[in-house]
Structures are given as structure tokens and as C-alpha cells.
Amino acid sequence: MSNTAEAIDGSALVGRAGGPARPARRPRPTQPLIGIILPAIIIALWQVAASLAWIDRVFLPAPLTVVTAFWKMLTKQNLALDFLASVKIVGQAFLYGSIAAVGLGIAAGLSRKVEQFFGPTFDTIRHIPGIAWLPLIVLWLGIGAPAKVLVIAKSVFFPVFLNTLQGIRNVEKNYIELASVLTLTRWQLVRKVVLPAAVPSIMVSLRYAAGLAWALVVVAEGLSGLEGLGFLIFRAQGLLLTDQLVVCMVIIGLVGFAIDRSMYLLQRRVLRWKQGYDG
Amino acid sequence: MATPGHLEVRNVSKTYAVAGRPPVRVLSRVSLDVQPGAFVSLVGPSGCGKSTLLRLIIGLDREHGGDILIGGQPIEGPALSRGIVFQDHRLLPWLTLEDNIALALENARWAAADKAAAVRDHIALVGLAGFEKAYPHQLSGGMAQRAAIARGIVGRPEILLLDEPLGALDALTRVRLQAELQRIWRLERITMILVTHDVDEAIYLSDQVVVLAGSPGRVATEIEIGLPRPRDRASVEFVALKQRILAAMGEDAAQRPAA
Hints:
A: 11 helices; elongated; B: alpha/beta; Rossmann fold; 2 domains; 6-stranded mixed sheet; 4-stranded antiparallel sheet
């Protein structure tokens, strides 16, 4: 039998056994418009509420006022710098926290000894919220970025660490057996089997941690420091600049949305081997 | 004298320790002799130790009584000279088809070009040319099992162990893959030992069918299949053999439809 004949034979087999092989990427029917309906309704309601003065203008500025405030903050004040300050803190904290977490998670996943060594300490530290660490760390490191980076990195660390550990421990026993039959060394087993098997679990936690880090920076900046979106939002509250306050809230929401979408796309890219994976 | 690839199973016994209970004996003094290049099937009721015996031969489980020798040498753990195909295809979902098959050559001491050629040839051999870059979830059950067979033989083992490899497939795919398996066996001249529940499958493929009885598992009888290949499942001789084997397995052969 020639190779060609076998290939045809192979595809004929697929055709019979449950439809042709699906292409690597199914084009997903996306309906971006439907997602815009609700925000449009909210903005419309907001406008109506402001126009009819349902709520005092001091407490609820009209949408257009907020847009104007945004422009003013961007051109006359240092909104861009504050924004960058927040992004930098989150970026650094996420990077340090997740690298440490994946590294130690893998080590603890592969070795019970490592897990037992860190376990009790980590499980205690984990239960002290990052924000509770902040006052002490600010005393040590000052009100600048390093204290916030440290506290947020801590909050990123734990979900990623625990998921990495679990991901590694949950590798199917059948795959370990296969590796044994194929005479893979321990290092080959880790590289070819254990780590790839843990990736889905790690990716989920990275996506979660990225969102968490962004939410926490606002809190951390609100509690200490003199720059960043979190600082602006609390300052605006104190000065009753509700238009600026809303500007900050919207930016925080949109950036959070963008972070989550990027992580989702990254996840899809990394996990393209996974069946029916849709996040 | 020891012949390379000659598998001898001598008086092999196996007991499993179960916490808080008397140990369970799964194999009792099983002896087998498989000549190089032969196709031997092990059939028997569930729990007669067929799969346990395969695990011992592949080297996943090394605690047993008696001797298992290949070419006169006792088995010391898994080796590339023995391949296995499991009931589940067990392809790694994060590797493409070709990477999955290449994984079996990871520790083969071949040149990279030879490995690549062997992977390509064996993908073609099992009829999957064109699917090299596909991920396992994109393959049908039959295709995945073909890939698993390719992975089992790509390293040119002396012996290929087949642990109910077609058991989970639909009837049509199964018959088709039986023919494929036979073609591959003739082409590659690898000793194959098949564990199956399917007596038809055993007769269709084998030189010899070993009937195990439980429990503990022991060899009830060995039946030579002398029919010329390819075999006709509906022929009188085939049906007669089937009835003999079913009778040896303790089934009531008379109640079974003769096809």
C-alpha cells in the first residue's frame, strides 16, 4: 500500500468516526456589539440622572463633565504620570511575585521536602492580607513604590504558588507510567510531562493574580504615597472633586478589563493544545 | 541457547498486598514461551491477570515470583526494546502527533536525522501522513490509537505489548485496525503480545491464543491458530476455534451465536 493510499485511508477513517478533524483554531462566532448594549444603557441612565438632577451635581457629575475633567487632568495635570506610576508598580509586582511563585511552586511540587520546609510559614503569611502588611513595610521602606511592589507581589505570589503546586501534583498517573515505559529520565519527565501538565493551572492563577494586582495598587496607593491612580482617587474624594474621582474609576475599570483580556488571549495562545478550551 | 527477542515466562506468580486483608494472588505459576516474530494473544475473563502479566513483561512492576527472560536475560525495568500500546491512547495532549511519537525516541541513541525519518515513516505506516502537526484532541479515537501504535513501534522494539488497544473503539474501527495491526506486524516483524477480551480479534490476528483462567490467573490452555491469513471470520474453522476458546474460558459456547 502506498503512503498516499494510507493517507486517504486515514482521512476516510476520520470522516466516518465523528466528523473530519477540526482545524486547529475554530473561528469563534463573536458578537462584540451585544457587549456594548449594557454600558450604553448605564451611560444613558447616568446622563438622565445628571440632567434631571436626581442626585446632587456635587456627588454625581454628568458624563460630559467627566470627559472634560479627564482632558484637563491629562493636559494640565499629571494624570499620565500617575497612571504610569500605578502601571509600573503593578507590572513589577506581578513580575516578581509570579516568577517567584512559579519557581517555588515547581520546586515544592516536585519535592515534598521543599513543600514541608515552606508549608507552615507560607500558610501563616498567606492569611495576613497584603494590606495588613503595608503599614509595617511602609515604616521600613517608606511611602514610595518599593513598599507597594512588595505588598502586591506578596498578594500575587500565593494564588500562583498554590496553583503551580497543585498543577504539578495533579499530573495524571497514566502519564507518569508512560514516561517510565519510554525510559524518560527524571528531568525529561519534568520537562516533557509534569510542567506542561501544570501549565493550565498556572495560567488560570496568573490571570487571576494580574487582576488582583491591579485592584490592590489602588488600595495601596490610597493608603500611602503621593502619586498613582489610587492616590488621585482618594485625594479627589477629600477635595470633593467627584468628576476627577469618576475619571479615575473609569480608567481603573478599563485598564482592569484590558489586563484580563490580554491574559485571556495569552492563555488561549499557550493552551491551544487543549480541547475545547475557551477560557 | 538464548535467542535474541525470545520471551520466556517461567512459573510467574504475583500477589498484591492489600492493607488489612489477606494478600490477593493474581497470577499463579504462569508459563509462556513466545518465539521472536510471533503474534500471541492472551484472552480470559476479567480479573484473570492478563494486564498484570503485561505490566510485568514491560517492566513497570518488578516484584513477582518466577522468571521473565528476554533473550535469556531477566527484565530489569522498562527498556526501549519493549514497546506498549495501552487501551487509552495515552498521547500527551500538549504535544503534536509527531512530537508524541518522537518522545519514544528521546533516549534512543540514534542520529537526529534517523529519528526524524523514523517518526515520519511510522506516521505514514499507520496511515496518518498529513496529521503530523495535529494535537491529540483533533484526532478521532481510531486515529489516536494508530498514533499510539506508531509510538509503540517507532523505536523498533523486539516486542510490542498491546493491552486491549482496540477495546475502546467502535466495532467498525476496530475491525479496520485489526487488519492494520496485522499488516504492520508482517511488515515490521515485531513480536506482538496482545491482551484482549475479544476472542474474534485474538483468532484473527494470532499464531497462538493463550487462554487464561482466573482467579488466581493461570494458563488454562494454549491453542495454535494454523489458519492461513487473511482469515475469514465466518469460516467453519474460525467458528470452531472460537467455540473451543470460549469453552476453555468457561463460557457456555453453545448459547453464543456462531458469528
